[in-house]
């Protein structure tokens, strides 16, 4: 399987010695049944079912971050043709060690962390069950069933300056912690839309957002400075959304916004009355 070329690097200071890159994905037996979650662990072998949600996209995301921060050991590991097999074996071993079963039936969120020396650390916790349609939707409805709302959405009033630490997922997450604290986002179902200094929505603190604009779904373009998430990539590849600019001042209280991430898949919510006020 050919890797996509690394995304253009942004200028940045040398990363601190303790910096690590990471990605968080879902392990769920339900995913074994969907053909879109089949992949080849060691190309050119045929695709096989996987319980790990969009694992090839997570591998590519880690590789892009490793290139950005010059993590040479991680680049070597993640560029290897057997990298997916290595990651899948490590994930299965983690389930075996932590839950006494490599085919643990209950959904689990697993964080894959890689340090500058290439060391891999896995941590996990149970996560709520969700229907298969949350992970591979057929479309994103502009008028979803009100009973299926999963999020309450707020717009952060403080600006975040884009940097390699917002474009890639790293252990340097102070800007996201500040955005959530400023917006009083303590509940798990509250998402905060992060805005850059130009007044453009960058991303969510936990998710990728999609806004209904001119008859199509729009997700913030890479130039806005947000994270290049795995489900964002999948939605763009499937033609569910296009990239563009969403001005914070144009986000309306009560509007439907779809959100996605590598653990909860796709869900939607409405912007609540905390816009611009936290």
Tell me what the structure shows.
There is one protein chain. This protein is an alpha+beta fold and 278 residues long. The protein has 6 helices and 13 strands. The chain has helices at residues 55-69, 72-79, 83-99, 164-167, 174-182, 230-237, and strands at residues 20-27, 38-39, 48-49, 108-115, 120-126, 151-159, 190-195, 201-204, 208-213, 216-220, 242-244, 256-261, 265-271. The strands form 3 sheets. An 8-stranded mixed β-sheet has the order 8-7-6-13-12-9-10-11. It has a 3-stranded antiparallel β-sheet with strand order 1-4-5, with helices on one face. Strands 2-3 form a two-stranded antiparallel ribbon. Helix 1 (55-69) runs antiparallel to helix 2. The longest helix is centred in the first third of the chain and has 17 residues, at 83-99. The protein starts with 19 loop residues before the first strand and ends in a 7-residue tail after the last strand. Residues 1-13 have low confidence and may be disordered.
